[in-house]
Amino acid sequence: MAVPTVKLSSGYEMPLVGFGLWKVKNDTCADQIYNAIKAGYRCFDGACDYGNEVEAGQGVARAIKDGLVKREELFIVSKLWNSFHEGDKVEPICRKQLADWGVDYFDLYIVHFPVALKYVDPSVRYPPGWTSADDKIELANAPIHETWAAMESLVDKKLARSIGVSNFSSQLLMDLLRYARVRPATLQIEHHPYLTQTRLVEYAQKQGIAVTAYSSFGPLSFLELELKHARDTPPLFEHPVIKGLAEKYSRTPAQVLLRWATQRNIAVIPKSNDPTRLAQNLQVTDFDLEKSELEAISALDKGLRFNDPVAYGMDIPIF
Fold it and tell me: Is 112 flagged in the annotation as binding?
């Protein structure tokens, strides 16, 4: 089954369902990519910070070599980490990430967080994480307009077909759109029924910016990080509203959650190492929830954010 796509402002088409590489282990990453391609996935969402881009590229290369897919049939996403926001650091790190993936261009390259950290040379530590070479959280002085101008040059040089942002607020988008020569094609945000971010989603979509949801299953994505409020939050898979709809449509709770997003034209990037769930997560555009059911899921909103630097003890209150 072909996966529906969303048309980006750059003119390219992005699959509405992709495979997210956050927390995919290095020793299984290549196989997971390969198996996901076999299952029908064409969009892969990676990042410098995930530390598995070399292995992801190995999985892609094997799939191409075996004739499963052509490079132009894939939509490969990566992200600019916080330590490389200064204008002269953007292109070099993008080229390193391309080399790690073993590709000539990214279909989409995203500013990971709206915060600039002190530069850490990749030869010193890679990926650098949130701290400087002195193991401290140190901010850099690069404003977003400096970073964005360098991102635009990646498009000019055909290193990235589309560029976007992640974890930006409406206010930051408003500011960015005032001066952007190349408009952001996508906004990637934490988005699940406990954190609907309705105004942000509506604003982005009105501006022609496609929205991608990460952590579509809410607290489940954060249990292994030992985040207390994730452990204390009722799992979405077990919520009566979600379970009831799963039973009604003979679907899994995961499929219901993913359909809630995709039916509202929000792209999703779930992952799984289980072949059955891998296939199920891709089959979330062949049924429709009723309007009242979409609203019932949205009504579960608690404004509950899990991916927040402050929750991990960092004094970076960006949300």
Answer: yes
13-184, what's its fold?
TIM Barrel (3.20.20)
As a whole number of angstroms, the distance between CA 107 and CA 8 comes to 11
Please tell me whether the overall predicted TM-score, pTM, comes out greater than 0.85 for this model.
yes
The per-residue pLDDT for range 22-75, each reduced to its tens digit, is 999 999 999 999 999 999 999 999 999 999 999 999 999 999 999 999 999 999
Q: 146 — alpha (psi -120 to 50), left (phi > 0) or beta?
A: alpha
Active-site position among 50, 109, 194, 214? 50
Under 8 Å between Cβ of 189 and 159: no
DSSP string, the chain: -PPPEEE-TTS-EEESB-EE-TT--HHHHHHHHHHHHHHT--EEE--GGGS-HHHHHHHHHHHHHTTS--GGG-EEEEEE-GGG-SHHHHHHHHHHHHHHHT-S-EEEEEE--S--B----TTT-SS-TTS-TTSS--B----HHHHHHHHHHHHHTTSEEEEEEES--HHHHHHHHHH-SS---EEEEE-BTTB--HHHHHHHHHTT-EEEEE-TTGGGGGGGGT-HHHHTSPPGGG-HHHHHHHHHHT--HHHHHHHHHHTTT-EE----SSHHHHHHHH--SSS---HHHHHHHHTT--------GGGGT-S----
AA letter at 208: G
Q: Say whether 50 is catalytic.
A: yes
Sequence ranges of the domains in the chain? 13-184
Instruction: Find the mean pLDDT for residues 103-110.
Output: 98
Contact predicate 35/302, CB 8 Å: no
